[in-house]
Amino acid sequence: MNELSNTWTDEEKQLYLMSLIYILNLDSDDNPIKKEFMKNKAKELGFAISKLKKITSAKELISLLGTIHSVRTKRYFLRDMILLSAADHDLSDNAIGQIYEIGTQIGLKAEKIDDIFLWAARGLEWQLDGSRLVDEDI
Question: What CA–CA distance (Å, rounded) separates 60 from 114?
C-alpha cells in the first residue's frame, strides 16, 4: 500500500478495514465501485472482509480508533474513509457528519479534516473535468 501502512500492526490493518466497512454501510450503499475499492484494500492488507468484526456505531469506531497513537495513521484512516464515501461522486450529509464527528473525537483538528474534505472535492472535480474533456462536443 504505502510506507505508512507498511508500519501498521495487524490490529491497525484490521481496524483500518473495519473503519472503511463502517463507512461503506452508513447509507446502506450497494455501490459496486465502493465494494471494489474495499476488496482491493482488504487484498492489499491480506485480510478477508468476511472475517472482520462489524462496527455498528460511530461511538464504537471512535473508541477503537482512540487506541491509535499516530496522528498520521489517524489522518490516513480518515482520508480513505472520505475517499470511499465519495467514490461514486455522491457524498451524503450523513457520511460527512459522521466522518467529521469521528475525526474530531479521535483528536484530529477540524481544520485538517476540512483540508481532507476539500482535497477530496478537488479530486472529484478533476475527475469530472477529465470526463468532460473527452465527452463534450467539439
Answer: 23
